[in-house]
Amino acid sequence: MIPWVQLDSAKTPDGQQELRLKRRGSEFSIMLGTNELMNSRLSGSEQALAKLSCQRIADHRRPRMLIGGLGMGFTLRAALAELGNDASIVVAELVPTVVAWARGPMGEVFGGCLDDPRVTVEETDVGQLIRSEPAAWDAILLDVDNGPQGIVHKSNDALYSLQGLGAARTALKPGGVLAVWSQGPDGGFTRRLKQAGFAVEEINTRANGKRGARHIIWMATNGPRS
Q1: How many CB atoms sit inside 10 A of residue 138's CB?
Q2: What is the dihedral of CA 145, 146, 147, 151, to 10 degrees?
Q3: How many angstroms separate the CA atoms of 30 and 80, rounded?
Q4: For 205-218, how does the pLDDT look when each residue is reduced to its tens digit (9 = 90+)?
Q5: Distance from C-alpha of 174 to C-alpha of 95, rounded to nearest angstrom
């Protein structure tokens, strides 16, 4: 068995916890304490987040997509494969070291997708981008922390609050979609999405195709305001 080797570490934004990048052969893992946040072998649900979103905005001209959380780039690469050359994608990543890992030791995983001319990476809080411009996005994809019940950074909770969901709806164009990845179900979050005025679909997906852990993706569509 090839042993895991730690390549680097970075503090979480609150300075209280540590992210660790590990490698075993061609496999990468990002850990928070004893919790594995992501693994380069398990990408199915993150890819589904992008594919489901792109299906729902397929008829939008010159679509603009905002992705919250770079991770290992699975969602970004899947979106690039689905969207045409007229699309633009902004990725918001709060931890600069994660971006450095993407361009450095995990470069082979990312396959140059950060150099695609459709992509812009912003080292900032995705919440700030959501609040900065109304009716700006055709799709907002949130793969932040472990979902609405996060473990990495408590300020992420604001994204999933009723106020945060209202801000996301304001930031979306009519017919736009808010897509949210989660490690598990959360009935309270489903109710908040509906309270915020979204039409909501809750989708079960797998971490690795038809196998692996079950994850949840909420697809919330921005309809006309009453």
Answers
A1: 25
A2: -70
A3: 23
A4: 876 666 667 789 99
A5: 31
Return the structure tokens found at 55: 């299906």
Which of these, 40, 46, 81, 72, lies nearest to 181 by C-alpha position? 46
> Using CA atoms in the order 202, 74, 132, 196, what is the torsion angle rounded to 10 degrees?
0
CA gap 123, 115 in Å, rounded? 16
Res. 151: pLDDT tops 50: no
What lies within 8 Å, CB to CB, of 107 at 6+ separation is none
The whole-angstrom separation of Cα 118 and Cα 115 is 8
Rounded Cα distance between 105 and 118, Å, is: 23
CA nearest to 14, candidates 145, 200, 120: 145
Task: Give pLDDT tens digits for 53-66.
Answer: 999 999 999 999 99
- pLDDT at position 36 is 87
Q: 3-state DSSP call for residue 123?
A: coil
